[in-house]
Amino acid sequence: MSDERTLDLLEAKIEELKQLNVMDGIDLSSEIAKLEKKLVELRRELYANLSDWERVKIARNPKRPYALDYIQTIFTGFYELHGDRMIGDDRALLTGLAQLNGQTVVIVAQQKGRSTEENKERFFGMARPQGYRKGVRAMKLAERFGFPVITFIDTPGAYPGVESEEANIGGAIAESLLTMSQLRTPILSVVIGEGGSGGALAIGVADRVLMLENAVYSVITPEGAAAILWKEKDKTKEAAAALNLTAEHLSELGLIDTVIPEPLGGAHKDFDQTVEALKASLVGFLNELRKIKLDKLLDARFKRYRSIGSYRELGVSEQEAYSEETAPSGDAPVEEAPDE
Questions:
Q1: How many whole angstroms separate alpha carbon 250 and alpha carbon 259?
Q2: What are the structural domain ranges in the chain?
């Protein structure tokens, strides 16, 4: 089966033939049509049964649309707000006011960079404490004026550097989680790419969570899980499968509310189609949430997150079997606790 790189090369060749067809007046339309048909067939074959790890690679594709691409296309009049009024600004997390179908909303979005320089400026989409505090400031502004909040999640995690720890990154994330859980205004969150760890969840406590088809959302990256669980970096595929991080899995688990379809090959293959589907979903959910009284909205939000996760108690026979499996081997002496 062909891989994405092969298909990209074929697509580039088709574009070259189209240029020749126009510039040199050579009729290559039949050949181009055959190649385009073949390209669609190969792409459909490639994306028919993607593994979870392959979904991760699509979510990280550098050609994939980022938050600003959606903001500038779906919304009008975006006015960016800067600074947390404590430390400074953080370019990895954007906040601002915008209009969605004539209604004012507040946007909180994680933004990666396209170039090396922009990625340095935006810390590869990994926000520092001042970023999350800026987000909290924007969300409280939204609550004050009754504006809905829309967040765009796209980060491998919060920035792990020393400066983050010095400025209390854990406290900033906790403050954001607490603020969103109690915010008296509708909240929509969209996972557009890679949603990783507490850095993503920090702006993901919402009344409705949307997720693009090829996005991922997890408590840890597959590489991190492989390093912890297997102590081997080559186990990333197994880790990705174990994490249930794809939109399909999360929808089945009830952790997200809808999956936004993407064109064949990913959102970057037909941005307009992706925007149309996402905008329609945002407008629909926002209209639905606006009809709910705030007290009921907050009660439902509380119940939503309290109900996440489940457990069951082991029966006697299962407990005995588990004890046998986890008991020390006969070769290793078991130390008895000293008498008190």
A1: 9
A2: 57-306
Those residues with Cβ within 8 angstroms of residue 145's Cβ, 6 or more apart along the chain or in another chain: 104
DSSP 112: -
Per-residue pLDDT of the chain (340 residues), as tens digits, is 456 777 777 778 787 777 776 666 667 777 778 887 777 777 777 677 788 998 999 999 999 999 999 999 999 999 999 999 999 999 999 999 999 999 999 999 999 999 999 999 999 999 999 999 999 999 999 999 999 999 999 999 999 999 999 999 999 999 999 999 999 999 999 999 999 999 999 999 999 999 999 999 999 999 999 999 888 888 999 999 999 999 999 999 999 999 999 988 889 989 999 999 999 999 999 999 999 999 999 999 999 999 887 667 777 887 777 676 666 555 544 445 555 4
CATH topology of domain 57-306: 2-enoyl-CoA Hydratase; Chain A, domain 1 (3.90.226)
Task: Report the candidate in 81, 110, 116, 124 with the shortest Cα–Cα distance to residue 190.
Answer: 110
